[in-house]
Amino acid sequence: MPRTQPNIIITGTPGVGKTSHCDVLAVNTGLKHLSINRIVKDRGCHDGWDDEHQSWIVDEDKLLDSLEDELPLGGHIIDWHACDLFPKSWIDLVVVLRTDSTKLYDRLKARKYPEQKLQENLDSEIMEVLLDEARGSYDQGIVVELRSDEADDIEGNVGRIETWIKHWEQDQVASAA
Ligand SMILES: Nc1ncnc2c1ncn2[C@@H]1O[C@H](COP(=O)(O)OP(=O)(O)OP(=O)(O)O)[C@@H](O)[C@H]1O
């Protein structure tokens, strides 16, 4: 059955501002904010804790199994630092947030990230790893790169995404008529 509400991935390097964007977008649109980090932990979609990287070792099959009934229905904002595992047929828009490396350094430092993890994330942002992943996994037309340097960017970006949602929903109605 065609979706009446879209599924949107908000992705990017840790600290780039995904949660900050998703929280506002969820309030403004009523779409459901799915924090994949929280789902991995709460639904046990992992093979234990990785001490070195201070993160859960994600079991992608379990994660997809746990999402396969709800996600294809639409109406979700998917918040994660990876995007390539979600089937193309589930996803309508992929937003890759980007930020300046000095700003990212300050944000991760404020979160007391260990030096190695901080450096890995900085490298990942500089090398555009998430942007490449998004472009390699989805049609070019649905991948959008947005800046998340200043607090004002959040409001502007969310406004742009809300406009996109309205157009998407109008297109769905038009193509169903
Ligand atoms: N556009 C922005 N301008 C200024 N500060 C921001 C911006 N976006 C996020 N921040 C700040 O950066 C920090 C990290 O933001 P946030 O938790 O939203 O990032 P994230 O990408 O969701 O991180 P993670 O992947 O680790 O969950 C927070 O302190 C937040 O207030």
Report on the architecture of this protein.
The chain is α/β, with parallel strands linked by helices. 47% of the residues lie in helices and 19% in strands. The chain has seven helices and seven strands. The chain has helices at residues 18-29, 36-42, 60-67, 101-110, 115-126, 129-137, 151-176, and strands spanning 7-11, 32-35, 46-50, 55-58, 76-79, 93-98, 143-147. A hairpin with a 4-residue loop joins strand 3 and strand 4 (55-58). The longest helix is centred in the C-terminal third of the chain and has 26 residues, at 151-176. The two termini are 15 Å apart. The model has no long low-confidence stretch (mean pLDDT 96). The structure holds adenosine-5'-triphosphate. Adenosine-5'-triphosphate binds next to helix 1 and helix 7. The site of adenosine-5'-triphosphate has 16 residues, from helix 1 and helix 7. It comes from Imshaugia aleurites. It is an enzyme of class 2 (transferase).
Approximate helicity band: 40-55%
Number of helices: 7
Oligomeric form of this entry?
A: single chain
CATH class (first level) name: Alpha Beta
Strand content: 15-25%
Average per-residue pLDDT, rounded, comes to 96
Uncertain segments = none
Question: Shape, please?
Answer: globular
The profile of the biggest β sheet is:
5 strands, parallel
| N-to-C CA distance | 15 Å
Which class of secondary structure composition applies to the elements? alpha/beta
- Write down the CATH topology: Rossmann fold
Family: Belongs to the adenylate kinase family. AK6 subfamily.
Protein name: Adenylate kinase isoenzyme 6 homolog
Subunit structure: Interacts with small ribosomal subunit protein uS11. Not a structural component of 43S pre-ribosomes, but transiently interacts with them by binding to uS11.
Subcellular location: Cytoplasm; Nucleus
